[in-house]
Amino acid sequence: MLAPFLTAATLWSLAWPGWHLTATRVCLAAWMGLGVVCAVGIVRRTRARDGHPVPLWMLMVVPVLAVLVVVAAITEAPVQLRVRMHLTGMTSSAQTYLNDFGAALPDEIGPFPVEQVTRRADGVYYVVGGGGSDDAYGLVYRPGGAPGETVRDRFVHLEGDWYLWYANSPRRLFR
To answer: Mean pLDDT over residues 157-164, rounded?
Structure first.
């Protein structure tokens, strides 16, 4: 059955700030294909006069897993879980970089590869991905409290002094 593997792949693609762009697109196409296969299978089985019942996976498993993936996308749960698993090391690295102007730039923060790091007066901004043009997704470590949202920058609190950061991105549709 494809649905459990597709669910795992989709949850992995959602476990990145801004989502893993290529993997998310592939998973979305696969979910649409699986939905079509299920719909066609249900219609064929209900129209068939041979008495074969519609398989349970078409009626229950696929829709339940699809709803799970949608809820995970809306709540940002996969990326929040991933950050929480690496929080101590991430915080230590960010504090070192924030307090020591001579500190080397990190190649990664926790499990995320870093494309760009910016130290601002209020914290450290890590760009870990982009959606094209000047869109950027990342993490912010800000010990002074929540960063103020602007037209350009939007934030979602993760844990402690950590925030998801969306710059010039329409990606946050549900908050």
So the answer is: 89
